[in-house]
């Protein structure tokens, strides 16, 4: 009986080690709430763009054309963007596809009205520790990562809408607009 438990423990430990070693390890991941303004990627025309517009609420989505869950969430992400773009929501879709040339037709086919950037080397994706697709980060006006979501999301679900509205109503200091400030009468 004792040996059976040792064997099970050895197998579980070995499997855990194998899984950990098989996962892509980013050597330098973006720290939570780090200043992200310096990161840039090319757009579909090859022009370098900052991935995090300063002072904006940003939905930063890492995806690929070959990823079925990524394709599934594009329509609701598009609707979310259309609903809140005028209120200050920026959607930045970062494709990890190897060839930028393949993206233009895909973006057109899926009617993606938001900014699409290309991370063919996956350098920026690795900085965020991304290795599953889709992965999304909701970033506040201060440039701080507030939420990290893995997998396809229904971007028009009520919890998502409530979260986005709350973030859009916050000023750059994280204070909800219209709230009384301490010391103000």
CATH topology: Glutaredoxin
CATH architecture: 3-Layer(aba) Sandwich
Q: Portion of residues in helices?
A: 25-40%
Mean pLDDT over all positions: 82
Strand content: 15-25%
Number of domains: 1
Radius of gyration from the alpha-carbon trace, in angstroms: 20 Å
Series of H and E elements: HEEEHEHEHEEH
Unreliable stretches covering 5 or more consecutive residues:
14-29, 178-185
Present the secondary structure layout:
Layout: H1 2-22, E1 40-42, E2 48-50, E3 57-63, H2 68-84, E4 89-95, H3 101-109, E5 115-118, H4 123-127, E6 135-139, E7 145-150, H5 158-169
Parallel strand pairs: 3-4, 4-5
Antiparallel strand pairs: 1-2, 3-6, 6-7
Give a brief rundown of this model.
This protein is of the alpha/beta class. The chain has 5 helices and 7 strands.
